[in-house]
Design a protein that fits this description.
Helix content: 25-40%
CATH superfamily: Hypothetical protein apc22750. Chain B
Strand content: 35-45%
CATH topology: Translation Initiation Factor IF3
Shape: elongated
Order of helices and strands: EEHHEE
Strand order of the largest sheet: 1-3-4-2
Number of strands: 4
Radius of gyration: 17 Å
CATH class: Alpha Beta
Number of helices: 2
């Protein structure tokens, strides 16, 4: 399946628009990652724990969106957008959402 941020697929014609599809993932950030990120905030450096969590959440959200597009009979998802939010009283949850338009191609 083709997944793209553009509104078309090069060398392909859109036959039909099947609808908007979404992928959502809400992931908890554990206390050890928070402590490591806090230390890096003071001393500098990258937070590997948060980066890995973000990568995993993004990958899962895209996979979920792709699966939903497949159930609609789509060949591609165009116009994909990603959004990131921090949730929870102590900002301990990460939400990654993606959306796009499921299409069939000629």
């Amino acid at each position: 399946m083709i997944i793209t941020t553009t509104n078309s697929v090069e060398n392909k014609t859109i036959k039909s628009y099947e609808g908007i599809v979404f992928g959502e993932v809400i992931s908890g950030i554990n206390m050890l990652k928070d402590m490591g990120a806090g230390l890096r905030n003071i001393f500098g450096g990258r937070s590997q724990g948060y980066e890995n969590e973000l990568l995993n959440a993004r990958t899962e959200a895209l996979k979920e969106m792709e699966e939903r597009a497949k159930t609609m009979g789509a060949d591609a998802v165009i116009g994909v957008k990603m959004d990131y939010e921090v949730l929870g009283a102590d900002n301990g949850m990460l939400m990654v959402t993606c959306s796009g338009t499921a299409v069939k191609l000629n």
